[in-house]
């Protein structure tokens, strides 16, 4: 029976990956951080009581900023596969806490790789590093491939570039089976509430249900290549099942602006709308009314922006036989339906 350990199991991707690995009959160890409130809501449906014999999901406290906890967890679990999804993953927040972001997102990867080496697991344990299209930043080529040079534009992007190259370095120096997934934005109903897609879906669903008047956003012109997290975790697993460890771009190959994403959510909610103004004065109204439903708040602009991201995942399609099952429309439909249901359930108890 295969054993895997997921750092970052409580996050969006961690929860989908845990589901996938459990379905494939893995024993899944997950690392969670101590928090004053429960941070395991995305795992509730998978949780197994510690008193159950032969349980398949085992949670441990740990933190990628704590070398000893990382090292002892790896020694204790002796996994066949390690997935490093742990990160301070919010780009805007990385400008506010750059040092912590570097510690968790850059040195965190090094701590795991060093533990593999220190415990002599180079031949036994495979390693996946959660890389990102943010590493391309101010893009040097369109679309971006595995060969496109990096030009990160945030402390988050810079930290992930370190994690990328230290992963390559340990692969080459110590023959560790280590892969970098370079994943473009991926979303789902489980997406954290401060990322733009979830924020838009949540805000517009609340407006639809008369629970909120206006949604405040930042730069509406940024273009992103958005896929579904459920499809993307399959690629992570596939990378570790190959004969040779390599790096892969995972993307849909299509991009739209944040503004168009808003339009698609409004259409899904059957709200008729009209945009007015430009730049900071852009607003969106319910058609033939004075109800301003979207406005700009300059506080949501970043010190530097990544204007456009568009990935080419031909290599993953060819070598991993990876394919996507969601398109943007079906993903938005799922996000909107789940959001409306959850808001309506909440409303009952208000
Ligand atoms: P997420 O929802 O923010 O989850 C991040 C996970 O990391 C959470 O489980 C979080 O724990 C954990 N974590 C944060 N700091 C930690 C620390 N110091 N020690 C241990 N765990 C820590 O992110 P996601 O969207 O699932 O993304 C997963 C990974 O892929 C991240 O590394 C992200 O940077 C990367 N990535 C994401 C995307 C995307 O579009 N989603 C694209 C490319 C790459 P808490 O629950 O306690 O906060
Ligand atoms: N979060 C947020 N909130 N973003 C906004 C807002 C807002 O109110 N208004 C406009 N945006 C714009 C941002 O400026 C950015 O250009 C775009 O929407 C997407 O922002 P996010 O959803 O925060 O994602 P991101 O692209 O910065 O980063 C995500 O994708 C990366 C992969 O490219 C994160 O998941 C990263 O962890 C991931 O690596």
What does this structure look like?
It is a single chain. The chain is α/β, with parallel strands linked by helices. The protein is 38% helix and 17% strand. It contains ten helices and 15 strands. The protein has helices at residues 12-23, 67-77, 91-96, 98-118, 155-174, 196-208, 229-239, 258-268, 314-320, 328-348; strands spanning 3-7, 27-32, 57-61, 81-84, 126-132, 178-183, 186-187, 215-217, 223-224, 227-228, 248-250, 256-257, 273-276, 283-286, 292-296. Strands 3-2-1-4-5-6-11 form a seven-stranded parallel sheet, sandwiched between helices. A four-stranded mixed sheet has the order 8-15-14-13, covered by helices on one side. A two-stranded parallel ribbon has the order 7-10. A hairpin with a 6-residue loop joins strand 13 (273-276) and strand 14 (283-286). Helix 2 (67-77) runs parallel beside helix 4 and helix 6 (196-208) crosses helix 10 (328-348). The mean pLDDT is 97. It binds NADP nicotinamide-adenine-dinucleotide phosphate and guanosine-5'-diphosphate-alpha-D-mannose. The site of guanosine-5'-diphosphate-alpha-D-mannose has 22 residues, from helix 3 and helix 6. Residues 89, 91-92, 132-134, 184-185, 194-196, 199, 217-219, 222, 224, 258, 300, 302, 305, 309 line the site of guanosine-5'-diphosphate-alpha-D-mannose.
């Amino acid at each position: 029976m295969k054993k895997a350990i997921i750092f970052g199991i409580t996050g969006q991707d961690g929860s989908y990956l845990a589901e996938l690995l459990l379905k494939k009959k893995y024993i899944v160890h997950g690392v969670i951080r101590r928090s004053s409130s429960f941070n395991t809501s995305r795992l509730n449906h998978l949780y197994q009581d510690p008193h159950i014999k032969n349980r398949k999901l085992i949670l441990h406290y740990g933190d990628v900023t704590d070398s000893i906890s990382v090292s002892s967890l790896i020694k204790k679990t002796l996994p066949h596969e390690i997935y490093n999804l742990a990160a301070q993953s919010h780009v805007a927040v990385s400008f506010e806490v750059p040092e912590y972001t570097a510690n968790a997102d850059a040195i965190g990867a090094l701590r795991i790789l060093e533990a593999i080496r220190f415990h002599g697991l180079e031949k036994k344990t495979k390693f996946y590093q959660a890389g990102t299209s943010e590493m391309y930043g101010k893009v040097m080529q369109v679309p971006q491939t595995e060969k496109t040079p990096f030009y990160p534009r945030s402390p988050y992007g810079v930290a992930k570039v370190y994690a990328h190259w230290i992963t390559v370095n340990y692969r080459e120096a110590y023959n560790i089976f280590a892969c970098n997934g370079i994943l473009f934005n991926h979303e789902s109903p489980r997406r954290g509430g401060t990322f733009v897609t979830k924020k838009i879906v949540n805000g517009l669903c609340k407006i639809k249900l008369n629970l909120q008047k206006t949604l405040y956003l930042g730069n509406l012109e940024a273009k992103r290549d958005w896929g579904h997290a459920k499809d993307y975790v399959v690629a992570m697993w596939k990378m570790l099942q190959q004969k040779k460890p390599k790096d892969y771009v995972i993307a849909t190959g299509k991009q739209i602006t944040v503004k168009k994403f808003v339009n698609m959510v409004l259409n899904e909610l059957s709200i008729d709308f009209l945009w007015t103004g430009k730049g900071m004065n852009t607003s969106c109204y319910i058609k033939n009314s004075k109800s301003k439903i979207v406005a700009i708040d300059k506080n949501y602009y970043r010190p530097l922006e990544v204007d456009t991201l568009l990935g080419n995942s031909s290599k993953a399609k060819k070598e991993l036989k990876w394919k996507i099952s969601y398109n943007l429309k079906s993903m938005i439909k799922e996000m909107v339906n789940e959001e409306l249901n959850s808001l309506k359930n909440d409303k009952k108890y208000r």
